[in-house]
Amino acid sequence: MPENISVDPQTAATQIIPLLDELSPSMCMAKWLWSSIHLTTGLTNSCFLPPLHKIDAKEIKNNPSALHNTKEKKEQRAMMLKGEKPAGCASCWKVEEQGKQLSDRAYRSSEPWAQAGWNDVLNKGAFGDIDPTYLEVNFNHACNLACSYCSPHLSSKWAEDIEKNGPYPTKVPHNSIEYFKQIGHYPIPNKDHNPYVEAFWNWWPTLYPKLKHFRMTGGEPLLDKNTFRVLDYVVNNDRPDLDMSITTNACVPEKNWNRFVDTVSFITEYKKLNSFRMFVSVDGYGDQAEYMRHGLNFDTLLNNVRNYLARTDGGLVTFIITLNMLSMPSVKRLMQEILELQKIYNVKKTRRDDAGKLISYGYHRVFVDTPILYHPEWQSLKLLPKQLHYLGDECLEFMKANKDGLRDTRWTGFKEHQINRFSRALDYMKQGFDTEEKQQDAEENFVRFFQAHDQRRNTDFCKIFPELKGSFIEWKTKYNV
To answer: What is the 3-state secondary structure (H, E, C) of the chain?
Structure first.
């Protein structure tokens, strides 16, 4: 097990690379210790970047850990131990070939859950079954929102749209339910028996004591009974070394929200877990956020976040801002709101040491993460017109001007790795598309998609995004859509 790894993500990732290289130049702990399992479809991967692949429904009847330990993952583990590079991890290999920055392989392998399982990985090798220390699951695709970049296999609201109106009329029809069925990505209906959910609960009593981080996603997990079954399990089974989290739109029916906060309040008050974190998905501010995540009430989201922070004992919040071109006009305003929440809810305390000297200390409760949206390409950062790139630059300067300085800033502001992550997104944005054909396809599909979006959902793109109105009209005329 690695020792003396820094708690700072940037430093820890730098320190872990030589340790990984001692094992293999392509070694990544996520392939063993991270698992993302889509119980709705029977698909899995390790880390967000590799493509999903199918779980063997027969194998999990006798070995529920095969939800994670699939044949494909074991083959890829063997490749990594030999220094070979699995094709599904290409995004990391590309970053490393450029030599400018650390890949996700470094960041993932340096995180505490990965360090905790290091020796277990070495003992199990490529083909032994191993319990992940980081597990993410979604139980259901039920969702009350239809976000612009989402799909019917991940949101029941999206499915309703497609079932009623058909796929969106992009150059290649978008979000066809038949397509997702053909590739095996469409969810098992809620009324049908789901062998993957059954296997999960068979595995859970064995798995739960070994986890270091457990995350529930969706759909919208606060609409699913299994989410509350997990929380109730925690109430009766303390795990003071486990970090648990949930990804939510924070805009669910009031009874669901109150049940959630009531339970988490109990869990945090009585220290049932090491920590509980709520990841809140929101990609802009105000009516622009509501447009991107159709069905969202932005004021309700903010009020619910405040309610959670006020009622839980140290409950954490991370705003997940999936950066896309529609985020840019209002992302700085959202960052300003996040900073205000930090000023209110981040912990700021003082105490006296043995000599009577007053010492200030504290910690963050409100965080931010800014992953990049890669698909669909017509909502990519790369499509944002160059004359609007300044919007991202202004937000970056705001973050730098409000950098977390610990005691000097009373434990508010943005951490170095958060600023760097946002900066990398802007670098990606400014690269643009690598061919004129991709640029033109994205422009035409942008108009085709959002024109249909407005017709189906009674919205008005040009009214909500005046900054992009000129580009919308230009592209509409250019392609005669």
So the answer is: CCCCCCCCHHHHHHHHHHHHHHHCCCCCCHHHHEEEEECCCCEEECCCCCCCEECCCCHHHHCHHHHCCCHHHHHHHHHHHCCCCCHHHHHHHHHHHHCCCCCHHHHHHHCHHHHHCHHHHHHHCCCCCCCCCEEEEECCCCCCCEECCCCCCCCHHHHHHHHHHCCECCCCCECCHHHHHHCCCCCCCCCCCCHHHHHHHHHHHHHHHHCCEEEEECCCHHHCHHHHHHHHHHHHCCEEEEEEEEEECCCCCHHHHHHHHHHHHHHHHCCCEEEEEEEEECCCCHHHHHHHEECCCHHHHHHHHHHHHHHCCCCEEEEECCECCCCCCCHHHHHHHHHHHHHHHCEEEEEECCCCCEEEEEECCEEEECCECCCCHHHCHHHCCHHHCHHHHHHHHHHHHCECCHHHHCCCCECHHHHHHHHHHHHHHHHCCCCHHHHHHHHHHHHHHHHHHHHHHCCCHHHHCHHHHHHHHHHHHHHCC
